[in-house]
Design goal:
about 525 residues, alpha+beta, Rossmann fold, Alpha-Beta Plaits, 33 strands, about 30% strand, binds guanosine-5',3'-tetraphosphate
């Protein structure tokens, strides 16, 4: 086992509110990773892809990426895997589940907006696993809010301590650069366009001639400000960062590519290498000899003519080699992997070998599902890859009633793939589809039409939320189901789901059935 290979892996995702600058900063990271030569090409690539692959009409029409892509690039002797999370108007369970496949995250905040709702939601997901978080406060080339106020907001709303590592000197048209608190250096803003990597002019020491020359009368004021910041904030502490209780904070502008490198340098240094993962048979260390991994995302029908699906597998331990045989734990079958794909920043390549922390894509015909575990033989099952209770529920009907069966098949397949929850009511056998974000209804209607040739209508329902029903005593679960048939449905695995009409209905039911649990998330059945 080559421990060095595992040690140098950094697998992370970026969380942010739409428009905070995730795409822009991704580009700059790729620039540092030498995966692109000129920033501005990721967006171009996005539109190229729409023009050529077309796997979903939606993407083209909206000009957004509904899918999660994976990019690998080298930086300072490390191998960085960046998992992109969809960040537009809408989002889906993919976004959440991507966060189960990373070891840390980068939180990008728009300095003029501060903490926004999407960030709060994504942060809640990170909390489930105490994921370490690095923070980049963006758009300092504009008039932004008082940085101290933004830090306060992060601390109070997101409930995490802030340890500023760099601090901005001015903002907007008066933005002069950043002060590196630990190194006692001023990195001078160069006013470049940010399309390439430029050398940064560094001034050693805040109390130096050069600093005085740069800042003039403002220097004294800035020194006071730094004292205030140091007094009011926390010092960086690696352990607290690793435990998700403290976030180092960096300031800059992604667009102008300034302050990003300082963040990236620390990121590869501090961000954890692949962490141990929990299974039903105890935790698995990334450096363990035998291969293991789990499926966290399925992207289906990339080519509508062939029913192909790519399962994205996060490697948790061992080394993967092309052609190797592995055990698909849920079915007990052996799979030979001859054509797995590794996602490099520029292109997809056939994966010859990969290590814990890497993501490989496995083309398959529907036998791999979200949450599935692959091993070299062990019968273990990774846990903590939840399905989320849908927040929006609608009824779905085929335009042609004779196609009800086809619709059922399509919905079950899409549910297996994790694209939505497909629920079949106990009474009437109607289909109710639940999603996390409203855009998913349109995506689903489009997919059912193009991939399964069934035209469907979604109809608003009066349902408020869905909860999986669990209980230690099987008889109580059955009794509950018998007495509440009008409010129950089966999910695609046949697990009972309670459909609440409103918040009161849910609360009342929870009160009436204290021995049952009404779950927002469901783990894959342990085999
Ligand atoms: P997202 O992926 O998080 O949704 O954000 P994205 O990077 O697409 O950035 C959203 C907008 O903010 C873009 O402008 C982008 O150019 C701008 N932006 C990102 N970083 C900075 C920054 O550091 N400073 C300033 N001033 N702007 C920044 P847009 O007009 O919506 O798109 P575009 O037409 O410029 O590409």
């Amino acid at each position: 086992m080559n421990i060095e290979e595992v040690d140098k892996r950094r697998t992370f995702a970026i969380i942010s509110h739409p428009d905070a600058g995730k795409t822009t900063i991704t580009e700059k990271l790729l620039l540092y990773g030498r995966a692109i030569q000129l920033a501005g090409t990721v967006k171009a690539r996005k539109s190229d892809r729409h023009a050529t692959s077309d796997w979903m009409e939606m993407e083209k029409q909206r000009g957004i990426s509904v899918t999660t892509s994976v990019m690998q690039f080298p930086y300072q002797g490390r191998t960085v895997n960046l998992l992109d999370t969809p960040g537009h108007e809408d989002f889906s369970e993919d976004t959440y589940r991507t966060l189960t496949a990373v070891d840390s995250v980068l939180m990008v905040i728009d300095g003029s907006k501060g903490v926004e709702d999407r960030t709060i939601k994504l942060m809640e997901v990170c909390r489930l696993r105490n994921t370490p978080i690095l923070t980049f406060i963006n758009k300092l080339d504009r008039e932004v809010r008082d940085p101290i106020e933004v830090l306060d907001e992060i601390e109070n709303i997101l409930n995490i301590k802030c340890a500023p590592v760099t601090w901005p000197i001015g903002m907007g048209s008066q933005f002069k650069g950043i002060y590196h608190l630990r190194r006692d250096e001023i990195h001078v803003f160069s006013h470049g366009k940010g399309e390439t990597i430029e050398d940064t002019n560094i001034i050693k020491g805040l109390e130096s001639e050069e600093a005085l020359e740069l800042l003039g009368d403002e220097l004294e004021e800035f020194i006071d400000e730094i004292e205030l910041v140091q007094g009011a904030s926390h010092e960086f502490d690696l352990q607290e960062y690793e435990e998700g209780r403290l976030t180092p904070v960096y300031f800059g502008t992604a667009l102008r590519n300034f302050g990003v490198m300082e963040m990236l340098d620390d990121f590869v240094e501090y961000a954890p290498s692949p962490l141990p993962r929990e299974t039903n048979a105890g935790s698995v260390e990334a450096t363990q000899e035998e291969f293991s991994g789990f499926v966290f995302k399925i992207q289906a029908n990339m080519d509508p003519k062939h029913r192909d699906r790519i399962a994205f597998v996060r490697l948790c331990s061992g080394k993967f080699k092309r052609g190797m045989k592995m055990r698909h734990v849920r079915s007990g079958k052996t799979l030979s992997l001859h054509n797995p794909v590794l996602f490099l920043a520029r292109d997809r390549e056939l994966a010859e070998e990969a290590w814990a922390g890497d993501i490989i894509g496995i083309p398959n015909h529907g036998n791999l599902r979200i949450g599935d575990t692959l091993t070299e033989g062990e019968a273990l099952q990774f846990t903590g890859i939840p399905s989320f209770a849908p927040e929006l529920l609608q009824k779905v009907r085929p335009d042609d009633p004779l196609k009800a069966k086809h619709l059922g098949r399509a919905l079950v397949q899409l549910a297996e793939e994790g694209a939505a929850r497909s629920l079949k009511t106990f009474i009437g056998g109607d289909w109710v589809v639940g999603v996390v974000g409203a855009l998913q209804f349109e995506v689903l209607a489009e997919r059912v039409r193009t991939e399964y040739d069934v035209a469907v209508r979604f109809e608003p329902s009066e349902l408020y939320t869905a909860r999986w029903v669990e209980g230690d005593d099987h008889a109580t679960v059955k009794k509950f189901c018998d007495e509440n048939r009008t409010a129950l449905a089966d999910d695609h695995d046949g697990s009972p789901v309670f459909l609440a009409r409103n918040a009161w209905h849910l609360n009342k039911t929870e009160e009436d059935w204290p021995e049952l649990r009404f779950m927002k998330t469901k783990e894959q059945e342990i085999v």
